[in-house]
Design brief:
The protein contains 5 helices and 21 strands.
């Protein structure tokens, strides 16, 4: 931080506040539609509709919202896509991810072999009939669960009367108009040739829009069930290397969303100083009327024996009229808006 004497100040100029990119409430879109492994069956049973009748599935975007205290003043809200390359889900070993219940499987270890994060370990079926791995996620945990990850091998052949010998059920329950309703997604699994023929799958399925509080669901995501089923006889081999729910990493998403907050400058100003001042993040001007002034540097320019410092917000480059800078900002805002509109389907679409 450089210290500047007020006696070296040549000119002080107030800058107009740039309010075009203010953001005080961020909606970070994690998933806007189904992605990954496609459900074979998607049923939504609601009210008088008979069980098994299929209705149109309308996914409600899965978002993380961060609101700054200043939102009450400015009310500027904007949606952002998740940055490319960011994994928004907790690792399977995180303490928030619960242990599964198993039926007919050897599942050693705590955490269990299906959520220990180690691809070399696995749960396998015991002798006898079918086997299962089940998760039950209630309340707030159901709300932030987006789907599942599954890595498995299943050596078998179809046998008469069974067209779906292996599947994953991803079932959201919620309360609307009294009784609990459900929105199940069923994913069929393929056979594999041998233990080395391993399938790596994930499925993302946001809640149906009917199951949201905004659409009169009195209790959203009262329960979520994630169930892995293998239906087989004794002459098969099942290995499950990974199977766990994809739960939002809320601390990570909070940091990403918070970084998108943009507040207007409180007192943007341009100060011109004699001589050369080394660039830095902050400068202090001693002897400033009313007391020493310390400000955050937004732009630093040097011209003809003087240094031009913009505090809090960058103004137009030296020699360029402020009107030209404002026109350039307006053009950029228009272009950014057009690009955002064009990319809306990508932001809200499938992530494969």
């Amino acid at each position: 931080m450089a210290t500047i004497q007020y006696s070296d100040v040549i000119e002080r100029q107030l800058l107009p506040v740039d309010a075009q990119n203010i953001v005080t409430r961020v909606r970070l879109v994690v998933a806007g539609d189904m992605a990954g492994h496609t459900p074979w069956q998607s049923l939504f049973r609601d009210g008088p509709v008979p069980d098994g009748e299929q209705l149109q599935y309308i996914p409600a975007p899965m978002v993380h919202v961060y609101e700054a205290a200043e939102h009450a003043t400015y009310g500027a809200e904007r949606s952002f896509a998740l940055p490319a390359g960011v994994n928004p889900f907790l690792p399977p070993t995180d303490l928030v991810v619960p242990e599964p219940a198993t039926v007919g499987m050897a599942n050693p270890g705590v955490p269990s072999a299906v959520r220990d994060g180690d691809p070399t370990t696995y749960a396998e079926n015991l002798a006898g009939g079918g086997c299962q791995v089940n998760y039950g996620l209630a309340g707030a945990l159901a709300r932030i669960t987006a789907g599942y990850r599954l890595v498995y091998s299943f050596q078998s052949d179809p046998y008469p009367g069974h067209i779906q010998p292996a599947w994953v059920d991803f079932i959201r329950n919620y309360v609307r108009d009294g009784p609990s309703q459900s929105c199940p997604q069923r994913y069929l699994l393929d056979f594999t040739r041998d233990p080395d023929d391993v399938r790596d799958l994930y499925g993302v399925a946001p809640s149906d829009a009917r199951a949201t509080i905004d659409n009169e669901a009195t209790a959203q995501h009262a329960m979520l069930a994630l169930q892995l089923h293998f239906q087989h006889n004794t002459n098969v081999a099942v290995r499950v290397h990974h199977f766990y729910p994809l739960i939002l990493n809320e601390p990570l998403l909070e940091d990403i969303a918070r970084a998108q907050i943009r507040l207007p400058a409180l007192l943007p100003q341009r100060v011109t100083v004699r001589g050369y001042v080394s660039p830095d993040r902050e400068h202090t001007i001693t002897g400033w009327p009313g007391g020493d002034y310390t400000g955050v540097v937004a732009q630093h320019q040097y011209e003809l024996g003087r240094t031009v410092i913009d505090f809090e917000q960058a103004g137009s480059p030296v020699g360029l009229p402020a009107e030209a800078m404002e026109a350039a900002r307006e053009r950029k805002q228009a272009i950014d808006g057009t690009v955002q509109t064009a990319n809306y389907n990508l932001m809200m679409g499938s992530r494969r």
